[in-house]
Description:
This protein is an all-beta fold. The chain has no helices and ten strands.
Amino acid sequence: MTLSTHVIDTAAGAPAGGVAVGLERMIVGFDGDVRGWRLVTSAVTDEDGRVRDFPLDGPGAWRLIFDTASLSAFFPEVVITFVVTDPARHHHVPLLLSPFGFSTYRGS
């Protein structure tokens, strides 16, 4: 199972290369309580604004943390939390960022 992301600077109308992105997995105890988050890996977007192949090692809650300080003084960091239920499918979670807003969606 893999995950990809794509960062678009909508103010510039261009991909955002050089953005640091961390991938974390939720840690859940045997009692079902959330224990926190564990950094799985990190990467930097390429010149096309993409990280193409983050590893996902199973279902559960995950989050991408984008260091967006160079693109937006208002949003120095964007965190997108999502749940993987189908471990056989590839997941694509893009970030569209402007100076004062952002959006995301489940891509293909």
